[in-house]
Specification:
The chain has about 280 residues and is an alpha/beta fold. Helix content is about 40%, strand content about 20%. The chain has an 8-stranded parallel beta barrel with strand order 1-2-3-4-7-8-9-10, surrounded by 7 helices. A two-stranded antiparallel sheet has the order 5-6. The longest helix is centred in the middle third of the chain and has 15 residues. The protein is globular, with a radius of gyration of 18 Å. The chain starts with a strand and ends with a helix.
């Protein structure tokens, strides 16, 4: 069994979002393997959509909470780091134009020597889709097409594409190509999401340390085979590390933890995490 990878949340959201680049440098120096940003374009009041990560379905933020755009922040974080893998967990792919998104991520990867990963999700906030003029009911189909088009564009010479929602004519070129494969991980806890993860490069789950689901992780590991099983585990280390051991035993290959951004504290927490999860 290979060593568990330790990732950290890179907070482009919340009162300290303006410190995201300092945090990226501190966490890389602390020795994490990966850093993962969150995604949200807009919030809408009132939000009637059910937030799937809270028992009561209510969103945990205020409308004036800063939220740095994920792809922009990813590129900026790549510019101030040298080693760590950088990803979004997860990007709502269906609200973005896929050819432009492929260009943006491919550019970051080219400038950063690879080091880019992407979690993708279909999204849950209907109000955000409405604001951006994209039918919420089409989000799953659009997500699949975004993935197909991005992967085609990253070859540098994609074939013509004629999807239900997006198209690409013959003769398109997109260079430079990413210097290495950009892994795409499917986010979501549904049966459909787990099945899609098996068709991509792995799965990106989201759990709270006090209510983990090892059965889902075990199913994800079975679905993805040799692919990645990444779990964003929310909570203090005293709770997340014991929970994380159970998730690793169920098949998780990487845990994305809440690591402090103070350099000395972060380094000590990464050492502790590696020791307790090994």
């Amino acid at each position: 069994m290979s060593a568990i990878r330790i990732g950290a949340k890179l907070a482009n959201f919340g009162p300290d979002a303006h410190r995201v680049l300092d945090a990226a440098q501190s966490l890389e120096a602390a020795g994490v393997d990966s850093l993962w940003l969150s995604d949200r374009v807009v919030t809408v009041t009132p939000t009637e959509s059910f937030y799937p990560f809270a028992p009561n379905g209510s969103v945990p933020w205020r409308d004036d909470t800063p939220f740095m755009e994920a792809v922009t922040a990813l590129g900026m974080a790549a510019a101030v780091t040298t080693r760590v893998e950088l990803g979004v967990g997860v990007l709502v792919a269906a609200v973005r134009q896929p050819v432009l998104l492929a260009k943006q991520l491919g550019t970051i990867a080219a400038l950063a020597g690879g080091r880019v990963a992407l979690g993708i999700g279909s999204g849950w906030m209907a109000e955000e889709f409405d604001t951006l003029g994209i039918p919420f009911a089409e989000r799953a189909e659009r997500t699949d097409e975004v993935v197909e088009l991005m992967r085609a564009c990253w070859t540098g010479t994609p074939d013509a594409y004629d999807g239900a929602h997006y198209g690409l004519p013959k003769g398109v070129a997109m260079h430079p190509v990413p210097p290495q494969h950009i892994p795409i991980l499917c986010g979501g806890m549904s049966t459909a999401a787990l099945r899609r993860a098996g068709e991509l490069d792995g799965w990106y789950g989201y759990m709270f340390a006090d209510r983990i689901d090892t059965d889902i992780v075990r199913t994800a590991a079975e679905m993805v085979g040799t692919g990645r099983v990444v779990v964003r585990l929310v909570g203090p280390l005293d709770k997340s590390l014991p929970a994380g051991k159970q998730l690793v035993a169920a098949g998780a290959t990487e845990l994305v933890l809440d690591i402090d951004t103070d350099p000395e504290t972060a380094a000590a927490q990464v050492v502790r995490a590696r020791a307790e999860l090994s």
